[in-house]
Amino acid sequence: MRKEYVHRTDIPRGINCTLSGYMLFCKKGDTEASKLIHIAGTDVSIENNAIVLSAKKGNRKIIAVIKAFAAHLDNMFAGLDKKFAYELEICNVHFPMTVKVEGDKLVISNFLGEKEKRVAKILNYVDVEVKGQKITVSSHDIESAGQTAANIEQATLIRKRDRRVFQDGIFITRKPKGEI
Question: In sequence order, what are the residues at sequence separation of 6 or more whose Cβ sits closer than 8 angstroms to the Cβ of residue 6?
Answer without folding.
Answer: 52, 53, 54, 55
